[in-house]
């Protein structure tokens, strides 16, 4: 039991003295004081199953990751201007998981910083600043990332698209203009990219980059139709642009069949951005690119990053990669995710409210609709369910433009027994909603 401040004291301090746009989960916020595996514990010691924290990827406070960080923190933490084994050992290990063409690493501290740097690399390489972005996407909190995120610039407080930012259709096989995971729908969605490239060409311009999450997270836990990225990448490259895969949410084995989600679409990006799970909660991130793009960034201006690539972050990053391998977490994500999706699909047969169940590995979306034909989003029922899950000690949140998708992306320490628990509570909740 924790003897710290009361929830009321923390809440009132936050309101007065912390950023005014901080949000809190739940009508009655939780005070969380400890984490282990796939569970979080409140100040009373009550365990909550964490279904949504894809940052603490190998499990909250994994002892090997904690030990690696503690040991290096007690020895040395500096910037990258001295020679140190950790930096090269870690880069070597991380690059070994990537296609051969992607052979240069740059270390930063957050997913936003990684995408920010990716845009700079692309601009230097292509001599263009025209950016193609997928509708509904989110890529981070910096100026350039907000400008690249329709979720933000088209949302509350947003200022619309900058003149050099061009939206392409969200390739959503459930709710989009072209339904189903077919090569026809893949090509039809890719046509929207072709159209934007043609509009640019008509003005004598060409794209700098096309940025796309390898599976859509914020836009609605969407699995794009097979073949979509192959077609889009070909078009973007033919027009002189580069292809950025944002793996900040979906990388590091979560999809089960592969280490990187772009591999499920059979493509090799020109730039890959990594974040969230990379340090299991320690703030670190990376950009991986080709020799040619890294060469083009050598303009005479140094890129210096005070914390990026420090020996502590590298020690932690190495431990995360080791744990993924030693504990076979990618395979675990595949098996547990498949089992989980099967259970959810069975429930879908019983409850009309479940319009769609989709996912790869332990990245799953359950889309709730009032009516399966009209697909009217069941937004209120989805938020009711999230509170119901909390009362039953399961934490998750909603996703998508209508907030009608249950977003499931737990730490990979999540088990089939945890999946059963979730399905039991979902069934009880859906029954109450009948
Ligand atoms: N890209 C994606 C796909 C993300 O989901 C996020 C964070 N939600 C970011 C980038 C930004 O990462 P960070 O918050 O670490 O800056």
UniProtKB/TrEMBL annotation:
Keywords for this protein: Aminotransferase, Pyridoxal phosphate, Transferase
Domain of life: Bacteria
Cofactor(s) the protein needs: pyridoxal 5'-phosphate
Molecular functions per Gene Ontology: transaminase activity
The keyword Hydrolase belongs to this UniProt entry's keyword annotation: no
Family that this chain belongs to: Belongs to the class-III pyridoxal-phosphate-dependent aminotransferase family.
Name of the protein this chain belongs to: Aminotransferase class III-fold pyridoxal phosphate-dependent enzyme
Organism: Thalassotalea psychrophila
Residues shown, of full length: 343 to 776 of 776
């Amino acid at each position: 039991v924790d003897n710290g401040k009361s929830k009321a004291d923390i809440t009132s301090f936050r309101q007065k003295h912390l950023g005014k746009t901080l949000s809190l989960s739940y009508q009655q916020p939780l005070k969380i004081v400890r984490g282990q595996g796939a569970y979080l514990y409140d100040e009373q010691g009550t365990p909550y199953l964490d279904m949504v924290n894809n940052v603490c990827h190998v499990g909250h406070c994994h002892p090997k990751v904690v030990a690696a960080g503690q040991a290096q923190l007690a020895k040395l933490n500096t910037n990258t201007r001295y020679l140190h084994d950790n930096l090269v050992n870690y880069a070597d290990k991380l690059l070994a998981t990537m296609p051969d063409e992607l052979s240069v690493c740059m270390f930063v501290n957050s997913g936003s910083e990684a995408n920010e740097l990716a845009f700079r690399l692309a601009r230097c390489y292509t001599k263009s600043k025209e950016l193609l972005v997928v509708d509904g996407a989110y890529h981070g909190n910096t100026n350039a990332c907000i400008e690249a995120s329709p979720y933000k610039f088209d949302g509350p407080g947003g200022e619309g698209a900058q003149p050099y930012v061009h939206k392409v259709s969200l390739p959503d096989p459930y709710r989009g203009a072209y339904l189903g995971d077919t090569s026809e729908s893949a090509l039809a969605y890719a046509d929207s990219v072709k159209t934007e490239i043609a509009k640019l060409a008509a003005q004598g311009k060409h794209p700098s980059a096309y940025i796309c999450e390898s599976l859509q997270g914020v836009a609605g836990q969407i699995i794009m139709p097979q073949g979509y990225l192959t077609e889009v990448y070909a078009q973007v490259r033919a027009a002189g642009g580069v292809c950025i895969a944002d793996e900040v949410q979906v990388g590091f084995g979560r999809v089960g069949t592969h280490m990187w989600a772009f591999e499920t679409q059979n493509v090799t990006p020109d730039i890959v951005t990594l974040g969230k799970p990379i340090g299991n909660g320690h703030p670190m991130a990376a950009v991986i690119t080709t020799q040619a793009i890294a060469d083009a960034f050598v303009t005479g201006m140094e890129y210096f990053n005070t914390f990026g690539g420090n020996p502590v972050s590298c020690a932690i990053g190495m431990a995360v990669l080791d744990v993924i391998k030693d504990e076979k977490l990618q395979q675990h994500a595949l098996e547990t995710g498949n089992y989980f999706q099967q259970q959810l699909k069975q429930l879908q047969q019983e409850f009309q409210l479940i319009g769609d169940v989709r996912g790869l590995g332990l990245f799953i979306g359950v889309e709730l609709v009032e009516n399966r034909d009209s697909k009217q989003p069941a937004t209120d029922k989805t938020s009711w369910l999230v509170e119901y899950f909390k009362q039953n000690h399961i934490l998750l949140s909603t996703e998508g433009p209508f907030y009608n998708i249950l977003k499931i992306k737990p730490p990979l320490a999540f088990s089939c027994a945890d999946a059963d628990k979730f399905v039991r509570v979902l069934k009880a909740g859906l029954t109450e909603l009948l």
